[in-house]
Fold this protein.
Amino acid sequence: MTDYKTLNYDEVSVGDKLPPQDIDITTGLIVSTALATRDYEPVHHDKAVAQATGLPDVFMNILTSQSFMTRFTTDWSGPEAVVKSLDIRLGAPNVPGMVMTVTGEVKAKDDDAGIIDIEVVGENNIWGMHMQGTVQLALPKGA
Protein backbone atom coordinates (compact mmCIF):
# COMPACT_ATOMS: atom_id res chain seq x y z
CA MET A 1 0.00 0.00 0.00
CA THR A 2 1.22 3.47 -0.83
CA ASP A 3 1.09 6.27 1.71
CA TYR A 4 -0.37 9.39 0.14
CA LYS A 5 0.80 12.77 1.38
CA THR A 6 -1.47 15.79 1.40
CA LEU A 7 0.11 19.08 0.43
CA ASN A 8 0.21 21.71 3.12
CA TYR A 9 -1.25 25.10 2.16
CA ASP A 10 2.14 26.73 2.82
CA GLU A 11 3.86 24.34 0.37
CA VAL A 12 1.85 25.70 -2.56
CA SER A 13 2.60 28.93 -4.44
CA VAL A 14 0.77 30.86 -7.11
CA GLY A 15 2.31 29.81 -10.41
CA ASP A 16 2.98 26.21 -9.37
CA LYS A 17 2.30 23.86 -12.26
CA LEU A 18 0.75 20.44 -11.75
CA PRO A 19 2.35 17.50 -13.58
CA PRO A 20 0.46 16.85 -16.83
CA GLN A 21 -1.64 13.71 -17.13
CA ASP A 22 -2.51 11.88 -20.36
CA ILE A 23 -5.84 10.05 -20.53
CA ASP A 24 -6.52 7.59 -23.35
CA ILE A 25 -10.07 8.09 -24.57
CA THR A 26 -11.63 4.71 -25.36
CA THR A 27 -15.14 3.53 -26.14
CA GLY A 28 -15.16 1.56 -22.90
CA LEU A 29 -14.20 4.65 -20.89
CA ILE A 30 -16.90 6.79 -22.49
CA VAL A 31 -19.68 4.20 -22.22
CA SER A 32 -18.86 2.99 -18.71
CA THR A 33 -18.51 6.46 -17.21
CA ALA A 34 -21.73 7.67 -18.85
CA LEU A 35 -23.58 4.69 -17.41
CA ALA A 36 -21.88 5.07 -14.02
CA THR A 37 -23.11 8.67 -13.85
CA ARG A 38 -26.62 7.59 -14.95
CA ASP A 39 -26.37 9.50 -18.20
CA TYR A 40 -28.33 7.28 -20.55
CA GLU A 41 -28.30 9.66 -23.52
CA PRO A 42 -27.70 7.43 -26.55
CA VAL A 43 -24.93 9.69 -27.92
CA HIS A 44 -22.71 8.38 -25.12
CA HIS A 45 -23.17 4.67 -25.89
CA ASP A 46 -24.68 4.26 -29.38
CA LYS A 47 -22.27 5.02 -32.23
CA ALA A 48 -25.05 5.32 -34.85
CA VAL A 49 -26.91 7.90 -32.77
CA ALA A 50 -23.70 9.87 -32.17
CA GLN A 51 -22.91 9.77 -35.90
CA ALA A 52 -26.40 11.10 -36.67
CA THR A 53 -25.40 14.24 -34.73
CA GLY A 54 -22.37 14.69 -36.98
CA LEU A 55 -19.68 13.19 -34.76
CA PRO A 56 -17.58 10.17 -35.76
CA ASP A 57 -18.37 8.11 -32.64
CA VAL A 58 -19.78 8.21 -29.09
CA PHE A 59 -18.51 11.12 -27.02
CA MET A 60 -17.69 11.82 -23.39
CA ASN A 61 -20.32 13.33 -21.10
CA ILE A 62 -19.79 16.40 -18.91
CA LEU A 63 -19.94 14.44 -15.65
CA THR A 64 -16.94 12.40 -16.75
CA SER A 65 -15.06 15.57 -17.70
CA GLN A 66 -15.86 17.05 -14.27
CA SER A 67 -14.61 13.92 -12.55
CA PHE A 68 -11.34 13.95 -14.48
CA MET A 69 -10.83 17.62 -13.63
CA THR A 70 -11.47 16.97 -9.94
CA ARG A 71 -9.38 13.79 -9.79
CA PHE A 72 -6.48 15.54 -11.51
CA THR A 73 -6.31 18.17 -8.77
CA THR A 74 -6.90 15.83 -5.83
CA ASP A 75 -4.35 13.29 -7.06
CA TRP A 76 -1.84 16.14 -6.95
CA SER A 77 -2.95 17.69 -3.65
CA GLY A 78 -3.55 14.54 -1.61
CA PRO A 79 -6.35 12.81 0.26
CA GLU A 80 -6.96 15.50 2.89
CA ALA A 81 -7.68 18.23 0.31
CA VAL A 82 -11.33 19.25 0.19
CA VAL A 83 -12.94 20.28 -3.10
CA LYS A 84 -14.78 23.54 -2.43
CA SER A 85 -15.97 24.34 -5.95
CA LEU A 86 -15.63 23.38 -9.58
CA ASP A 87 -16.21 25.65 -12.56
CA ILE A 88 -15.99 23.97 -15.97
CA ARG A 89 -16.50 24.99 -19.57
CA LEU A 90 -16.57 22.40 -22.33
CA GLY A 91 -15.10 22.78 -25.79
CA ALA A 92 -14.37 20.09 -28.38
CA PRO A 93 -15.78 16.60 -27.75
CA ASN A 94 -13.62 13.67 -26.68
CA VAL A 95 -14.20 10.59 -28.88
CA PRO A 96 -12.52 7.17 -28.90
CA GLY A 97 -8.95 7.15 -30.20
CA MET A 98 -8.04 10.54 -28.77
CA VAL A 99 -5.65 11.30 -25.94
CA MET A 100 -6.59 14.10 -23.57
CA THR A 101 -3.72 15.84 -21.81
CA VAL A 102 -4.75 17.56 -18.58
CA THR A 103 -2.62 20.42 -17.23
CA GLY A 104 -3.03 22.75 -14.30
CA GLU A 105 -1.59 25.78 -12.56
CA VAL A 106 -2.20 27.38 -9.17
CA LYS A 107 -3.71 30.78 -9.94
CA ALA A 108 -4.70 32.16 -6.52
CA LYS A 109 -4.44 31.59 -2.78
CA ASP A 110 -6.78 32.76 0.00
CA ASP A 111 -4.62 32.83 3.13
CA ASP A 112 -7.55 33.31 5.53
CA ALA A 113 -9.54 30.34 4.21
CA GLY A 114 -6.61 28.12 3.21
CA ILE A 115 -8.11 27.75 -0.28
CA ILE A 116 -6.25 27.59 -3.57
CA ASP A 117 -7.61 28.09 -7.09
CA ILE A 118 -6.23 25.75 -9.74
CA GLU A 119 -6.82 26.48 -13.40
CA VAL A 120 -7.24 23.19 -15.28
CA VAL A 121 -7.22 22.58 -19.04
CA GLY A 122 -7.84 19.30 -20.84
CA GLU A 123 -6.87 19.25 -24.52
CA ASN A 124 -7.32 16.34 -26.86
CA ASN A 125 -4.73 15.59 -29.51
CA ILE A 126 -7.07 16.16 -32.47
CA TRP A 127 -9.53 19.00 -31.82
CA GLY A 128 -7.85 20.83 -28.96
CA MET A 129 -9.51 22.21 -25.83
CA HIS A 130 -12.04 19.76 -24.40
CA MET A 131 -12.45 21.34 -20.96
CA GLN A 132 -11.16 24.26 -18.99
CA GLY A 133 -12.04 25.69 -15.65
CA THR A 134 -11.12 26.22 -12.04
CA VAL A 135 -11.07 23.87 -9.08
CA GLN A 136 -10.96 25.37 -5.60
CA LEU A 137 -9.32 23.22 -2.95
CA ALA A 138 -9.00 23.71 0.80
CA LEU A 139 -5.65 22.45 2.06
CA PRO A 140 -4.54 21.89 5.64
CA LYS A 141 -2.47 24.68 7.18
CA GLY A 142 0.58 24.31 9.38
CA ALA A 143 3.26 21.65 9.56
Observations:
- The beta strands are 17-24, 82-90, 99-110, 115-124, 128-138.
- The helical segments are 27-36, 47-52, 62-77.
- The two ends are 24 Å apart (CA to CA).
